[in-house]
Design a protein that fits this description.
Layout (H helix, E strand, L loop, with lengths): L30 H16 L8 H24 L2 E6 L2 E6 L1 H20 L3 H7 L9 H8 L3
Helix pairs in contact: 1-2, 2-3
């Protein structure tokens, strides 16, 4: 071989991760909801689960998380129940924050499924599908099992 040997110092390897633009959080998100957006949106974009078309659905999830955090903080400070005196005697009642927390958790579960934010939903969105119903039987019949 003739010529100068190649210098591998000047070769720039291709990146596996091509940076995709992360949609900006909607203007109406504030405080904790915006923090959730900033923390999760880049990873969802990297996994091709978030683009600008789905911004409001993801904003709904971020708001649910913010409500969950706020309600959980209230419950940690005030407790789950308060006592009230009624004509039937002293009763324990759930605080309003308990209901807010439960609604926020339901919203989180509903919206997180859209973006694969649980292990089950992540597998569902992985695109592997159900497979072939008769694939195992055909392998056994063909002797390729």
């Amino acid at each position: 071989m003739k010529g100068k040997k190649p210098n591998l110092q000047n070769v720039v390897p291709m990146k596996d991760d091509i940076q995709k633009p992360v949609p900006d959080a909607p203007e109406f998100l504030e405080g904790e909801a915006r923090k959730v957006w900033d923390a999760l949106a880049p990873e969802l974009v990297r996994k091709d689960r978030l683009d600008a078309l789905y911004a409001y659905q993801f904003a709904s999830y971020c708001t649910c998380v913010a409500n969950f955090v706020a309600a959980s903080a209230c419950l940690a400070l005030e407790g789950l129940y308060y006592e009230t005196k009624t004509r039937n005697g002293v009763q324990q009642k759930k605080r309003a924050a308990w209901g807010i927390q439960q609604e926020a958790m339901a919203g989180m579960r509903r919206d997180s499924a859209l973006f694969g934010l649980s292990p089950v939903d992540a597998l569902r969105l992985s695109g592997e599908g159900q497979g072939d119903l008769f694939d195992d039987a055909m392998k056994m019949l063909n002797g390729t099992d």
